[in-house]
Design a protein that fits this description.
Blueprint: H1 3-15, H2 23-31, E1 52-55, E2 58-60, H3 63-72, E3 80-84, H4 90-98, E4 101-106, H5 109-121, E5 127-131, E6 144-149, H6 158-162, E7 164-174, E8 180-187, E9 193-201
Helix pairs in contact: 1-2, 1-3, 2-4
The protein binds S-adenosyl-L-homocysteine.
S-adenosyl-L-homocysteine binds next to strand 2, helix 4 and strand 4.
Length: 210
């Protein structure tokens, strides 16, 4: 398999063609080997235009959705980012190229362990994988310049809004089943929140206490 050719085609036909234009995001999507983050039996599908199962009933998102959500975070390279829902680690690997530090939380212990080893093995050294409930965020490292939630909840957990820095961006799917909407919340001066809608999406549910 010529993975670098598949990666080029993915960026051109699935991502740039749908309007993602942040040069740094496109570069990261060209660099991170997505085939490392899908189950062995599915590597031939790694660059297909849809999500894939990763075990434990969870999925790695469609490449375009990863690119779109990442672009909405507006990362320049100096940020501390929190991800909720580590899953395969693919989104975290993309973030690691675009920010200074990435903290990622996963509620399924087996996935957290496996992904921690994988990210380390491939040199994504600015990513910390934590096994825990992301609906509470991760107060120890707060505040965050950007927060990305890769599982859907009815409402954005309060702790995540609290842990967002002033000027910070939070991107999350909100809603049930097929009725989810991708939201971006920007925290302005005086804790004022601006909310934008960025289209319909389908994610696995966020399961947690909050
Ligand atoms: N970003 C991932 C997509 C993972 S799918 C990737 O690039 O592959 C969503 C993940 O969120 C699943 O692994 C699921 O177990 C996890 N999850 C669901 N609820 C959670 C919670 N409350 N805290 C942390 N992780 C959670």
């Amino acid at each position: 398999m010529n993975y670098s050719k598949l990666r080029e085609d993915m960026v051109k036909h699935q991502i740039e063609s749908r309007g993602v234009s942040d040069k740094r995001v496109l570069k990261a999507m060209r660099e991170v080997p997505r085939e490392l983050f899908v189950p062995e039996g599915l590597v031939v599908e790694a660059y297909n235009d849809h999500p894939l199962p990763i075990g434990h009933g969870q999925t790695i998102s469609q490449p375009y959705i990863v690119a779109e959500m990442t672009e909405l975070l507006e990362l320049k390279g100096s940020e501390k980012v929190l991800e909720i829902g580590t899953g395969s680690g693919y989104q975290a690997a993309i973030l690691s190229k675009l920010a200074k530090k990435v903290i990622t939380l996963e509620r399924i212990e087996g996935l957290a362990k496996k992904t921690r080893v994988l990210l380390k093995k491939h040199g994504y050294n600015n990513v910390t994988v934590i096994h825990g409930d992301g609906t509470k965020g991760y107060g120890k490292e707060a505040p965050y310049d950007a927060i990305i939630v890769t599982a859907a909840a009815d409402k954005i957990p309060k702790a995540l809004i609290e842990q967002l820095a002033e000027g910070g961006r939070l991107v999350a799917p909100v809603g049930k089943g097929y009725g989810q909407e991708l939201l971006r919340i920007i925290k302005r001066e005086g804790d004022k929140l601006d909310t934008e809608e960025h289209g319909g999406v389908i994610f696995v549910p966020l399961i947690g206490d909050e």
